[in-house]
Structure formats: C-alpha cells, structure tokens
C-alpha cells in the first residue's frame, strides 16, 4: 500500500509540473481559500494570475471562476473575478460558478455553465499538486481537459508540497472511478 501511495504521489507531482495549456473554449480557475475581509489567499491569487496570463496570451476567450463561499465571504469566484478585472480582463469575459465546495463540485457545477456555452475543451488552472485530480473530475463530466499549474514558488516549501502531493494521492486512491477516468472521444 505504501509503495502505491508514494508511487501515485510521484505521478501526481510529475503531472502537475507540466504546462499543458492549449487553445480552449474556456479557462476554468479552481477556487482556494478567501481570507478575512475578502482577501485572496496566496493560492487563489497565484491561480488567477496564471489564468490571466493565459487569457492575455489568447488561449481562451473566457474565464470561469469556480468556488463558493468558504469561511469568509464573498465567494471564491467573486474574489477571483475582481482580481482578474484588476489585472485587465474585461468583466464580460468572466463567468462565475459560486456553489462548489470541493473539486468534484467544481467540475459538476462548472459543467452546467460550460454546457450552456457549448464549450468543448477547457484548460483547468490550479496548484500543481491538485491538477491530476481536477483533470480527472472534469473528464468524468465529459470534458476534454488540458491543465496549467499556478506557480508554487514562494508559497509552499518542500515539506508542504510533499504533504499536499501525498494528500492528493490518497484522495485519488479513495475514489478509483476518478483515478481511472478517460478523456471523452470527440
């Protein structure tokens, strides 16, 4: 069991280091903690900054910010949109999904918005250690998914990266259906 966990953790870490962004219909940015006073956590800020850079490169015409209200309002999605607009993204290019409180819900509730848009391919932006599981949940919802890691430098030291990566391996092993999800045939 231990070898399996650490083997999967190695794969999670390696997968998350790869930049996989390609032209897509929508950039989906997964939420993270909002601090007291509606301030973006480091993770939330890094994810938005990465998505804005991809948007400015012309990889997608829209951004979908996914995340509900955690311990502190407003929703993660609202905080991300406000930050993206401050960074130069037009408000009309920003969509919100404000009900989710987990990666599975990010994918499920975002899928409703993406279907209304007629989207086919999405790029999911999150922290590197989170990307494999996030991709798998979006695949389960029927999307062709590329991934793009937000930078971790300056936010997480090696011990924290190890912890979060192993945590992701356990999360994937706990849900084998998610781990085995394949890309839809289009």
TrEMBL record:
Sequence ranges assigned to domain DUF218 in this UniProt record: 25-168
Stored Pfam families: DUF218 (PF02698)
Residues making up the signal peptide according to the UniProt record: none
Highest taxon listed in the record's lineage: Bacteria
Gene Ontology CC annotations of this record: plasma membrane
Record InterPro entries: Cell_Envelope_Assoc, DUF218, Rossmann-like_a/b/a_fold
Xref: CDD domains: YdcF-like
PANTHER family: DUF218 DOMAIN-CONTAINING PROTEIN, INNER MEMBRANE PROTEIN, PROBABLE PERMEASE
Protein's name according to its UniProt entry: DUF218 domain-containing protein
